[in-house]
Amino acid sequence: MSITAHEAMWFLPFVLPVCLYVCFTDLREMRITNQAVLVLAALFVVIGPFLLPLPDYGWRLAHLVVVLVIGFLLNAGGAIGAGDAKFAAAAAPFVALGDMRILLAIFAANLLAAFFTHRLVKYTPLRRIAPHWKSWDMGWKFPMGLSLGGTLAIYLALGAAYGA
Question: Is the pTM of this model over 0.85?
Answer without folding.
Answer: yes
